[in-house]
């Protein structure tokens, strides 16, 4: 019995979009923050991994909130909600590394 339909084209397309998002964020960081892509990627990866408590490869809403609240930024609940909505581009209820990197440079 077939339990789940799997469309490899969809998965590949999503991975390509994520890679393109990540590369765009790295370029923006290099220009805006004055750091290399490698430096930005290392810092961002460390932050993401620190707050991805369950090791899922995504930040759920609580993990995302914890990351922002512990960033040292003075962020209101309303701003947190707005940032989560902006970061979760595909509306799946979680924030991927690529989505997180887009918010990080904004």
Describe this structure in words.
Helix 1 (8-33) packs across helix 2. This protein has 5 helices and 2 strands, in the order ααβααβα. It has a two-stranded antiparallel ribbon. It has 106 residues and is mainly alpha-helical. The longest helix has 26 residues, at 8-33. It has helices at 8-33, 37-51, 61-69, 77-87, 97-105; strands at 58-59, 95-96. The model is unreliable at 1-15 (pLDDT under 50). Helices cover 66% and strands 4% of the residues.
Report, as a whole number of angstroms, the end-to-end distance: 47 Å
**What proportion strand?**
under 5%
Q: What structural category arises from helix and sheet content?
A: mainly alpha
Order of helices and strands: HHEHHEH
User: What is the CA-atom radius of gyration, in angstroms?
Assistant: 15 Å
> What best-fitting shape do the alpha-carbon axes yield?
globular
Largest sheet composition? 2 strands, antiparallel
| Percent helix | 55-70%
Please tally the β strands and state the result. Answer: 2
The spatial strand order of the largest sheet comes to 1-2
Oligomer: single chain
Q: How would you state the average pLDDT, rounded?
A: 78
**Count of helix runs:** 5
pLDDT under 50 segments (min length 5)? Answer: 1-15
Labels describing this entry:
106 residues, mainly alpha, two-stranded antiparallel sheet, 2 strands
